[in-house]
């Protein structure tokens, strides 16, 4: 069953189209990623889901409700963390949790929530004195305090150090384990690859691709990367005529090719035919990073 | 109005020593300083036989309203918007207007408490008689509070940042203090000047409070000026105010 449904969503500001026909559905219990370069329209899309912006065209439903017309009901089932927001600087963590708990008809107990987010030692600290990571954790707590069915997390780990980022990832997995559907906006490939069940790659206001992380990598042109240092120079023509070749790079005598499994076999045959030894031969799967660059490059062309 | 928001905003107000001082303590402190000058305790012809310290009690009350409405309220509202606090509240089932109304209730209540303090200190320390027409005094005070809060909301609606709110607040602050009669009580102003000043919210409030203090029902003209200002300013604020 889908918790969030977006179809043919369009939004422009002052004649500039920011979201241009985006459609996707988020199923109950999944972590759905929205991935894209800066300015691709990711935040505007989720702001329409949250009911902060009115779409120019298209349909948005959260558990079957319209985020604009049924704002109050949607706010009860959808928790959210915004990319940039603050609280009153002199409000303590405990007061913020108590206050936000009052806003919901059936709130979560904030004590275990604070415990799970590692905020227990900071309950008496004012918002203005919290570090970036602590603020983020408090905002996650506030997003979850109303016992929502789904949460929107927008650029959650931006500005966090690697340790805090990994802790946050574990936390998001915990959130999903507890049955909450997660819509995650990010521009970190590693984050999307590790967490998301499915990803919509958004570029220039459109969905460039929608698939599982593995599916996105597989469908991109250079899913497999082969690199080696040949014992004798290889002819450019031989390389470009390899089957399913996607890219060729030469650097300091080392050759890096991307393509498919077919390309790998053909490279080995080619090397054997010319009696060339491949030093430090490495064959690796491309990462989501490569797939993403490939997808957004296609959209640009 | 959401009581949890109201309680929180009141608690946060108490954590701002600057606001507490300027709104709650400063007006009475000024009254005490002026009342300590011997000549301020002698009857004055130009004030219709009142002592200057008598005339300064309603002025102290108005200073409290100006401090809360024009100085404090726009800073808080603009700050809440600038920091995205209003925006964050839009994601909850409680509307951000709850935060605005709570903030107005807090500022208005503290200003009224400050007015009571000024009246009490005036009575106890300087023998200033309490308003002889209490109902009229209360009505004038409530209308004046409403117009001060409405003026503050307009300042906040017109200010994109707290810096701008501070600048506009200060620009409005001194003329309002003048109209309230801080430098020269309205009764003592030259006739033409007084007529103009009485058309401003705090000039009208000063006259209405003065009349009620002396035992008359405040002039409907002055109350009318206050009511019209309140309506106009509230209309302007709700038209121009932005949530983000």
Automatic annotation (TrEMBL), chain A:
Transmembrane regions listed in the UniProt entry: none
Domain of life: Bacteria
Topology of this chain in the membrane: Peripheral membrane protein
SUPFAM superfamilies: P-loop containing nucleoside triphosphate hydrolases (SSF52540)
One Gene Ontology term of the molecular function aspect: ATP binding
Annotated compartments: Cell membrane
Residues of the ABC transporter domain: 4-229
Principal subcellular localisation of the protein: membrane
Keywords associated with the record: Antibiotic resistance, ATP-binding, Nucleotide-binding, Transport
PROSITE patterns documented for this protein: ABC_TRANSPORTER_1, ABC_TRANSPORTER_2
Keyword Nucleotide-binding: yes
Protein known as: ABC transporter ATP-binding protein
UniProt organism field: Streptomyces carpinensis
From TrEMBL, chain B:
Xref: PROSITE patterns: ABC_TM2
Membrane protein topology class: Multi-pass membrane protein
Ranges that cross the membrane: 20-40, 55-77, 98-125, 137-158, 165-186, 220-241
Keyword Transport: yes
Entry's localization field: Cell membrane; Membrane
Keywords: Antibiotic resistance, Cell membrane, Membrane, Transmembrane, Transmembrane helix, Transport
InterPro entries: ABC-2_transporter, ABC2_TM, ABC2_TM_bact-type, ABC_2_transport
Entry keyword Amino-acid biosynthesis: no
Domain ABC transmembrane type-2 span(s) in chain numbering: 18-244
Domain of life from the UniProt record: Bacteria
Family label: Belongs to the ABC-2 integral membrane protein family.
Protein name in the entry: Transport permease protein
């Amino acid at each position: 069953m889908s918790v969030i449904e977006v179809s043919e969503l369009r939004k422009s500001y002052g004649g500039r189209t920011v979201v241009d026909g985006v459609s996707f559905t988020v199923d109950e219990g999944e972590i759905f990623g929205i991935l894209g370069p800066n300015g691709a329209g990711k935040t505007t899309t989720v702001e329409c889901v949250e009911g902060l912006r009115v779409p120019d065209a298209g349909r948005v439903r959260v558990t079957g409700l319209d985020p604009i017309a049924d704002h109050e009901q949607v706010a009860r089932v959808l928790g959210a963390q915004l990319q940039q927001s603050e609280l009153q600087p002199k409000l303590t963590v405990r007061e913020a949790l108590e206050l936000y708990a009052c806003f919901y008809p059936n709130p979560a107990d904030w004590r275990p929530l604070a415990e799970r987010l590692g905020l227990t030692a900071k309950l008496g600290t004012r918002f203005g004195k919290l570090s970036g990571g602590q603020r983020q954790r408090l905002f996650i707590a506030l997003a979850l305090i109303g016992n929502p069915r789904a949460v929107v997390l927008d650029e959650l780990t931006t500005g966090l150090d690697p340790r805090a980022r990994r802790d946050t990832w574990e936390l998001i997995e915990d959130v999903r384990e507890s049955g909450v559907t997660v819509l995650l906006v990010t521009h970190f490939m590693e984050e999307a690859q590790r967490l998301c069940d499915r990803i919509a790659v958004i570029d220039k206001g459109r969905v460039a691709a929608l698939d599982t992380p593995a599916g996105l990598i597989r469908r991109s042109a250079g899913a497999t990367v082969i690199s080696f240092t040949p014992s004798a120079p290889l002819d450019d023509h031989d390389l470009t005529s390899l089957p399913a070749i996607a890219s060729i790079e030469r650097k300091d005598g080392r050759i890096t090719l991307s393509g498919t499994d077919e390309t790998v076999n053909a490279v080995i045959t080619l090397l054997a035919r010319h009696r060339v030894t491949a030093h430090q031969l490495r064959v690796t799967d491309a990462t989501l990073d490569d797939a993403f660059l490939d997808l957004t490059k296609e959209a640009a062309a | 109005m959401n009581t949890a928001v109201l309680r929180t905003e009141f608690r946060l107000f108490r954590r701002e020593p600057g606001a507490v001082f300027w709104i709650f303590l400063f007006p009475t402190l000024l009254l005490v300083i002026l009342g300590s000058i011997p000549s301020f305790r002698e009857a004055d012809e130009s004030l219709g036989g009142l002592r200057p310290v008598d005339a300064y009690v309603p002025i102290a009350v108005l200073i409290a309203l100006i401090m809360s409405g024009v100085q404090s309220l726009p800073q808080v509202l603009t700050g809440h918007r600038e920091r995205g606090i209003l925006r964050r509240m839009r994601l909850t089932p409680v509307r951000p207007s709850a935060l605005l109304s709570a903030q107005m209730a807090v500022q208005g209540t503290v200003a009224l408490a400050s007015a009571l303090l000024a009246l009490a200190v005036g009575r106890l320390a300087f023998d200033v008689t309490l308003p002889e027409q209490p109902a009229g005094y209360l009505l004038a005070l409530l209308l004046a509070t409403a117009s001060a809060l409405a003026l503050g909301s307009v300042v906040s609606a017109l200010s994109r940042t707290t810096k701008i709110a501070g600048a506009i607040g200060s620009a409005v602050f001194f003329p309002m203090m003048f109209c309230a009669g801080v430098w020269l009580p309205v009764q003592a102003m030259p006739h033409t000047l007084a007529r103009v000043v009485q058309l401003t919210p705090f000039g009208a409030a000063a006259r209405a409070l003065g009349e009620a203090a002396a035992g008359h029902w405040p002039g409907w003209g002055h109350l009318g000026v206050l009511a019209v200002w309140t309506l106009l300013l509230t209309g302007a604020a709700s038209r121009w105010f932005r949530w983000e």
